[in-house]
Target: Transcription antitermination protein NusB
Amino acid sequence: MSRKQARSQAFQTLFQLEMKNSDLTIEEAISFIKDDYPDLDFDFIQWLVSGVKDYEPVLDDKISPHLNGWTIPRLLKSDRIILRMATFELLHSETPPKVIINEAVELTKQFSDDDHHKFVNGVLSNIN
Model:
C-alpha cells in the first residue's frame, strides 16, 4: 500500500492518541489497524507517529510563527495533527517538500473543514 494510505492511518492513530481519555501507547494504537490493513508500511507509520509525539513541542515551536493570529491550542485537532505530521516529515525525511505539503492538503480535505486545506497549505509553505 502507498505512503498516502500510511499517512492517513498515521493521522488516525495520532487523532486516537489525542482523545482526552486515551491511555493507549503508540504500539497499542497502531496494533488496531494491523489486522485491517496488513499491507501498510508499519515502519513508516511507527516512525511518523512516534516522531510527532516525541517532537511535539519542537514542532509546535516551528509551526506557531506561521499561524497568523492563531495559536496551536485554538486549531482544530485535525489541523493541528496534520500540521505536526507534515512539519515532522519536512524536517526529518528525504521526501520532497511538495509531496509532503500535497499529502497534508489532501488529508486536510478528507478530515477537516471545507477550506482549511488552504490554511494548512499556507502554513506549511512558509515552514518549508
In short: Residues 77-92 form the longest helix (16 residues). The helical segments are 3-17, 26-34, 42-54, 56-63, 77-92, 97-111, 116-127. Residues 3-127 form a domain with the N-utilizing Substance Protein B Homolog; Chain A fold (CATH 1.10.940.10).
